[in-house]
Amino acid sequence: MNQNILEGKWMQLKGSIREKWGDLTDDELEQIAGKRDKLAGVLQERYGYTEVEAEREIDDFLDSWEHDHPHK
Questions:
Q1: What is the tens place of the pLDDT at every residue in 48-67?
Q2: Per residue in 11-51, pLDDT tens?
Q3: Residue 64, CA distances (Å) to 8, 27, 35 in order
Q4: Domain 3-68 has CATH 3.90.550.10
Q5: Which letter, b or e, does each residue of 8-35 get, where b requires 16 or more Cβ atoms within 10 Å of its Cβ?
Q6: Largest CB tally within 10 Å, which of 11, 46, 59, 65?
């Protein structure tokens, strides 16, 4: 999923992101606002992921979300 799609579907994705990474705060989600690099940074800080791990987690999450929501 490219950056434009992540930003465009941010409102739909926020709830699923909250379920996946429950430690993220509302303020963090507002700051991320669909920006992949910001999501990766917050995941690194909050969960101790390396940059590569954060990117892989995001890719896996987005692939799974698209599979479960093919027409959204």
A1: 999 999 999 999 998 898 88
A2: 889 999 999 999 999 999 999 999 999 999 999 999 999 99
A3: 17, 25, 18
A4: no
A5: ebbeebbebbeebbeebeeebbeebebe
A6: 65
Handedness of CA 22, 48, 62, 25 (dihedral sign): positive
Confidence (pLDDT) at 7: 81
**C-alpha–C-alpha distance, residues 29 and 14, integer Å:** 7
pLDDT category at 3 given cuts 50, 70, 90 is low
pTM: 0.86
Maximum CA extent, the chain: 33
d(CA 49, CA 55): 9
Query: What are the extents of the domains in the chain?
Result: 3-68
